[in-house]
Amino acid sequence: MKKITAVLSTTVAALAASAALASPASANAPASFEPWLQRSAAQCSGISASVLAAQIHAESDFRTNAVSRSGAMGPAQFMPGTWAIWRTDGDGNGTTDPYSIADSVMAQGRFMCHLFGQTAAGVSNGTMRGYALDLALAAYNAGLGAVQRAGGMPSGGEYSTQTQPYVAKIKALEPRYRYLNGGGGTSPLHQAGLDFGSLAGLPF
Predict the structure, then answer these.
(1) pLDDT bucket at 113, cuts 50 / 70 / 90
(2) pLDDT tens, 59-109?
(3) How sure is the predictor about 182, in pLDDT bands with cuts at 50, 70 and 90?
(4) Tell me, which fold does domain 2-201 have in CATH?
(5) Cβ(139)–Cβ(147) under 8 Å?
(6) So what's the pLDDT on residue 123?
(7) CA–CA distance from 192 to each of 69, 140, 179, 186 (Å)?
(8) Torsion over CA of 52, 189, 133 and 131, rounded to 10 degrees?
(9) In a 10 Å sphere around its CB, with 0-12 CB exposed, 13-18 middle and 19+ buried, how is residue 67 labelled?
(10) What is the rounded CA–CA span in Å between residue 65 and residue 126?
(11) Residue 56, helix vs strand vs coil
(12) Does 188 have pLDDT greater than 80?
């Protein structure tokens, strides 16, 4: 009985935390980010401004000077090698800076469009299981190779403790940023739904 009660308490607490995270917040994305999130999302039809905003929230909480312990830089948390490939001069000032809102957000969208294209193709041809957008988010965190090797959402080790919760966190945060999409439209992330597979047993 004690074990059952403990499990129920943990489950209720996790659900409450998830509900609180998913509920609309009074604070919006910083105004300096909003036009760039919308421009970045316009680069392809597979992503939305609300998804990009939730992703930056999860990555850096919109801190332009963010630097991770592993060396990821700026609000979109690009690793140096990844930035070298996807860097973008978003504001046209002649430089590419991962700490610049314009450059980092436009590069984030460009990279996410690429990942979404790869995962959408994988789902379509049967080499990947799940939904293209949540797999693209997983690829942003863990690398496209990890998703390809798993044939879908990677699991085990840090994939279970970091990548899967990362995708789930973005899903929970996304509704509060839908005002960025214009016209009150639903984001692609919620149009298709998410297939989290083994995420169902995780405590969040």
Answers:
(1) very high
(2) 999 999 999 999 999 999 999 999 999 999 999 999 999 999 999 999 999
(3) confident
(4) Lysozyme (1.10.530)
(5) yes
(6) 98
(7) 34, 19, 19, 10
(8) 170
(9) middle
(10) 40
(11) helix
(12) no
Query: Secondary structure of the chain: what % helix, strand, coil (to 5)?
Result: 60, 0, 35
Angle at 136 between CA 36 and CA 183, to 5 degrees: 45
78 bridge partner residues: 73
Whole-number Cα distances in Å, 140 to 93, 144, 197: 26, 7, 18
In angstroms, the CA 137 to CA 44 distance is: 15
* Amino acid code (one letter) for 61: D
Sketch the domain layout of the chain as residue ranges: 2-201
Mean pLDDT rounded to a whole number for the chain: 84
Residues in the chain: 204
- How many alpha carbons lie under 13 Å from residue 45 in its C-beta half-sphere? 2
CA dihedral 148, 153, 158, 161 (to 10 degrees): 170
> CA-to-CA distance for 48 and 8, rounded, in angstroms?
36
